[in-house]
Amino acid sequence: MQSNGPSQQNSLGPKKKTSMGVQVLAYLIGSCFGLGIITAIGMTGTPGIILGVLAVAGSIFAIVKVPRLRVLASFGAIGGVVLTLLGLGAVGAEETAQARAQANMDEAKKRRLEAEARATELALKFEDLAASSKNEDVLALCEQAVSAGGIPANHKERCGTLLYAQGQARLSKERSEGLRYLALAGQIESSKRADAVALAAKTERDALRDDTNASLKDAQAQLAAKDITSARATLNAAHKRIATALQSEPNDKPLAALQQRLEDLTQKVEKEEEKQASAKRRADYIKESCAQVSRTFGPSSKLSDIQKDELWKSYKGKGFAWNLEVVEVSEGMLGGYTVQFKCGRNSPSLIQDIQMSFSKHARATVMELQKGAVYEVEGKLTSTSTLFGLGAEPL
C-alpha cells in the first residue's frame, strides 16, 4: 500500500552525530577522575588538585557534548569537586606541618645558641680564675657551670671537691641544701663523685627513718586522742614512703623493721575504728533488755493486740545487742538458716523468745553455734508474734 504523502520522519528531527574526536577527547579528559581517585589513595596535595580540576572540566565537557554520558559525567563532576577539596586540604595541612617543623627547628637552634653562649661565658670566667681565688667565688661559678654542663676538665676536681665539702657542711643545718650540693658534686667527674653519691643516699635513708619515726609518734598520739581519721592519714603517707624506699633497697633491714611497726600500729587503728563504728551503731540500739521486750510483746503482756501493734511501730527495724542462749539451729523453710534463741537461762518461755533468719552464706557462722551456749548477738527486729515471739535478722 502506497502512502499518500512524503515519508514520515522522527518528530524530534534527525539525530546529530557526535564526532569521534569529541568522544575520544571526552573519554580522555573524563578519565582524569579515575586517575584522581588513584592519586588520592596513593598521595595527596597538588597532584590531587590538578587531577580533580581536570576531572571536573572533563565531566562538564562530557555533559555538554556527549548526552549519553551525562549521568556518568555528573558523578564524575561531583567526585572531581570532592577530590579538589581533598587536595586543597592536604596542601593546607602540609603547609601547617612545615611551618610547625620550622618553628621547632628555630626554637631548638635558639636554645642551642643560648647554651653555647653560656658555656663560652663560663669558660672565659674559669680562665680568669687564679689558683688563689676565693673558694666562695669558685663555688658559685662551679654551681652555675654544673647547671650549664660546661666545667672545663682542668677545673672539675676543684669544683667536685668544693661542692662535696659544701654539701657536708650544710647537711647538719639545712639538709635539703646539703643534698642539693651533694647532687651537684655527684654530676662532676672528680675524686669526690662516689663519696657524694654515697653520702646523699645515706642522708636520704636517715631522713626517711627520722620522718617515719616521727610519723609513728604522731599516729600514736592521734590514736590515743581517738582521732582515727588523722592517724590513718599519717600512717598511709608513711607506708607509701617506706614502700617506695624498699623497692630500691629491698634488703634494708632497718626500713623493713619500720614497715612492720607501721603495720602493727595500723592494725591497732583499724581495731579502734571498728570499735568506734560499733559504738556509733549501738547508740541507736534498743535500750531495754531482751527479756523486757519479749514480755512486752509476749503472751504474758498486759497490752492488748491493738496496743501492741501501735507500740511495735517504734521497735520495728531497731537494732539490738543482747546476750542470747541458743535453743536450736536448723535450715529455714525458704532457704538459709533459722536460729532460735532465749533471752537467757532464766527465760520463762517454753520454746523461744526470738528467732533469727540467716542467709545461706552464713553457714560457717551458724555451724559454730552450740545449743545451750550464750552469745552476744547483734541484730535488727523485723517482726513480732504472740506465738513465735520476736523475729530478727543479723547485722
Structure description:
The protein is α+β, with helices and mostly antiparallel strands and 395 residues long. Among the domains are: 74 residues; 77 residues; 105 residues, Nucleic acid-binding proteins (OB fold (Dihydrolipoamide Acetyltransferase, E2P)). Helices cover 63% and strands 11% of the residues. A five-stranded mixed barrel has the order 1-2-3-5-4. Helix 1 packs antiparallel against helix 2. The longest helix is centred in the N-terminal third of the chain and has 59 residues. The N terminus is likely disordered. Keywords: Coiled coil, Membrane, Transmembrane, Transmembrane helix.
SS summary, helix count? 12
Succession of helices and strands: HHHHHHHHHHHEEEHEE
Q: Which segments are poorly predicted (pLDDT under 50) over 5 or more consecutive residues?
A: 1-16
Strand coverage percent: 5-15%
> What is the CATH fold-level name of the domain at 290-394?
OB fold (Dihydrolipoamide Acetyltransferase, E2P)
Distance between the termini: 114 Å
* Number of beta-strand segments: 5
**Top-tier CATH class of the domain at 290-394:** Mainly Beta
Helix/strand/pairing category: alpha+beta
* CA gyration radius, whole angstroms: 47 Å
How can the largest sheet be summarized?
A: 5 strands, mixed, barrel
What do we call the CATH homologous superfamily of the domain at 290-394? Nucleic acid-binding proteins
What is the CATH-assigned architecture of the domain at 290-394?
Beta Barrel
Keywords: Coiled coil, Membrane, Transmembrane, Transmembrane helix
Transmembrane segments: 21-41, 47-64, 71-93
Coiled coil: 96-125, 255-282
